[in-house]
Design brief:
Number of helices: 4
Structural class: alpha+beta
Number of strands: 10
Strand order of the largest sheet: 1-3-4-5-2-7-10-9-8-6
Length: 278
């Protein structure tokens, strides 16, 4: 890992326009009314911004951009978005020009049950003309080939929930979310690759998609904007299998515990949220 230390503190600044048409496509993906020009962007929908700027010839076998450029050259072949933490300071609004400043804040290596794991943490700030609107830490995990990434055994009992909504993990949902976020990772739309190369039983539901579904459901049930959100992937979710997005108050005013359930009583993602107190 010593040869990667030079990437610590490396930074990048990008700009993008929060397009009304692009937001409308994401709203269609979620069967939700589309926000209009000038409206605040729903929480976690900012992940449609700043898509990877890799030419077709620069994609690796897995669909990710090849190593190089801003991201450090970590050699482990499998890359997944493991979780993150976000603070919402002010709304991003449809039609605004958004600037994202990114810094690499951590690179580490661990020995897990499935082999060697490398962890990378990115710190983002998203700003409009008035200043910083969103702060985000993003955790990425890299691991070896040949690991059978199946959900853990059935839980004895699932937690109680104030709401438990079923989600149809139709491959078309996965494809549309990949399209609107310009995500070319093949495990989300290429079944032969997901099954035969990365050893998954089916297409893998995107972690950011699951997190956004959790946030959408929370706001729909409670009706207040988010001020903070954190999430962690615990096990993969697969297309065509049962999935529920769930939540309940967490004991303190404005705080909620959220989770996504997969087949076999598997908790595939856990999250916590803080809502604006009115």
């Amino acid at each position: 890992m010593h040869n990667l230390d030079q990437w610590l503190g490396r930074s990048q600044t990008l700009t993008d326009i929060l397009s009304e048409a692009q937001v409308a496509r994401l709203a269609l993906t979620f069967d939700m009314p589309a926000p209009r020009y000038g409206d605040p962007l729903p929480a976690l929908w900012h992940w449609i911004l700043f898509p990877p700027q890799a030419a077709q010839s620069e994609l690796g076998a897995d669909g990710h951009p090849r190593l190089g450029g801003f991201m450090p050259p970590i050699k482990l072949p499998r890359r997944m978005w493991a979780g993150g933490r976000l603070i919402f300071r002010a709304p991003l609004r449809i039609g605004e020009t958004i600037t994202r400043f990114t810094k690499i804040t951590s690179i580490s290596e661990k020995q897990g049950k499935s082999g060697v794991l490398n962890f990378l943490t990115l710190h983002h700030t998203l700003s409009n003309a008035s200043g910083i609107c969103v702060e985000e830490e993003q955790d990425i995990v890299y691991r070896e080939h040949g690991v059978n990434a199946q959900p853990p055994r059935d839980a004895e009992a699932l937690p109680s929930a104030a709401w438990r909504e079923v989600v149809d993990t139709d491959p078309r949902l996965l494809f549309r979310y990949s399209a609107v976020t310009f995500n070319t990772h093949r495990i989300h739309y290429d079944l032969p690759y997901a099954r035969d190369v990365e050893c998954y039983p089916d297409l893998v539901v995107q972690g950011p998609l699951t997190a956004t579904l959790l946030a959408n459901a929370l706001v729909r049930h409670v009706g207040r904007p988010l001020t903070a959100f954190s999430f962690r992937g615990l096990a993969p979710l697969f297309a065509g299998q049962a999935m529920h997005v769930c939540g309940e108050p967490d004991g303190t005013e404005g705080t909620y515990r959220l989770w996504a359930e997969g087949a076999g009583n598997c908790i595939a993602m856990s999250a916590s949220a803080q809502l604006a107190v009115i």
